[in-house]
Amino acid sequence: MTVNQPASPVKIAKPRGIKPRTGIKGRVWKFGPDIDTDRIIPARYLNTSDPEELARHCMEDEDPSFSKSVKPGDIIVADKNFGCGSSREHAPIAIKASGVSCVIARSFARIFYRNSFNMGLPILECGDAVDSTDAGDILSVDIAKGEIRNVTRKKTYHARPVPQFMRELVETGGLMEWVRRKFPQAF
Amino acid sequence: MTITEKILARGAGLKEVLPGELINARVDIALGNDITAPIAISEFRRIGAKKVFDRRKVVLVPDHFTPNKDIKSATQCKVLREFAMEQKLTHYYEGGDVGVEHALLPEKGVVVPGDVVVGADSHTCTYGALGAFSTGVGSTDLAAAMITGELWFKVPESMKFVYYGRLNRWVSGKDLILYAIGDVGVDGALYRAMEFAGEAVRKLSMDSRLAMCNMAIEAGGKSGIIEPDAVTKEYVKRRAERPFRFYSSDPDAGYVEVREYDCRKIEPQVACPHLPENTRNVTDVGEVRIDQVVIGSCTNGRIEDLKVAAMVLKGKHVAPNLRLIIIPATPDIYREAMEKGYFDIFLKAGAVISPPTCGPCLGGHMGVLAPGERAVSTTNRNFVGRMGDVTSEVYLANPAVAAASAVKGRVAHPDEVCGL
Ligand code: SF4
Predict the structure, then answer these.
(1) 3-state DSSP: chain A helix, strand, coil percent, rounded to 5?
(2) What is the pTM (predicted TM-score) of this model?
């Protein structure tokens, strides 16, 4: 895939030295299909964008125990269309701030997908992994390779590959870093 | 190419684009609201940006918790106001000027046909009704667009929805889109551009078209769009603040899927809890008692919606112990409804008339639901807890059904209240 550059002649610098996040390992929280952003972070808490506070209410309406018992590194595994509904970035922020290291789903709603890449929350699409993973399993994930290993069940799955440009976004450090490099005239 | 591909190609400065291709396109309007813009502004500042790319093209509308609900939301709005003043933005609205963003921008001619629009709000897809490519993005995207005036897009595949045949009485754009969402499901158009076409769509008013495109996201769509025509021209000619351009799909344009619907079979639709895809004919919903009715929002808070509500409510009163909240979506709609005498009808019917705001649509304020309460609402989402407590329920419907339900105290067909 190619990215055309109509408006600005500056070429995207090849990322140097920044390694993509690897070595994610954690316990699974399992959710069903069509988890919407109101369930990830209810609108009644949107009068703030403080990550800590959002994290305290993450998944509250779906599983009230989540925010209290989630551990750093834990992994969310969900069925299709995860993150549907509003465009609120508060959703991936709340998930990230609650310590979750990665979200794996059969599919993602598109704005959630975009937001996650733009802010560096690793996400992978993999139906097979969703089908054969239960809550409490331990997964280890290699984002760069798209490899998901279920340590509890000793099985390995391969996620749909992430387009090159979007990997570049993550490797550059997210969209803002990319903008900073590409539009030096704005600063 | 489809209309969507043509607009994106123009934005990217290319002759042609293909579905799946990643492009960078210029944006004509970048929009944020009181929930999403504060994050975008803080990103803008964090990386040390100094100026927005074009002060006429960055639009801020604090509409969600307006008039400010509490100290925190007031603080969020203050962030927007100070940024708007500092950057000398020409499109910043508050107080008596603010309305629900997706009703306000088309009305004011801020978005025009042929535009590429991004908004940090999922219902930015509304402007497809004008023949623009418009899509919801996140706050970080908004920050990038505010700085650079461009953004990355994956060119979506297009999916066509053709509506033919005459509309039944009380059926509006809202019912046509609910019907399609019921058909394809909440992810049935995931990542796709939904193009609405057919003779029935051609006959729809602009208000109805806006309601249709508004809910494209409820089927997972990246955008909704309707080819501009005489109705569009009539609507934009006295509003557009910039030159506009009509695009249309080529006869040989490629669609990933085409669905056809016979409107003669479409009755007023109700989406039952807790997903917009749980649609039924209003007559098949059964006896559902309700506590509240909301008529408003970026879906159905326009003048045509208030007109049909007034028609149903005229000379009637809402059921005992039922709260009817009517929210004209913009100050202009508010004034027009008042001048046309709708407010008299509403007040006599026992309604509360709210200033323009998103308010209860997202469970924010001005009509939040208690545990176990049920509402019929003309808004676009009925997710768990969307309008209040997690045990509350929302039934989505058009304004005629909502008004009739308010009179009956249960989900009702408008004919029950307003005989032929
Ligand atoms: S009216 Fe509702 S759906 Fe529309 S912008 Fe406001 S909160 Fe969002």
Answers:
(1) 30, 20, 50
(2) 0.90
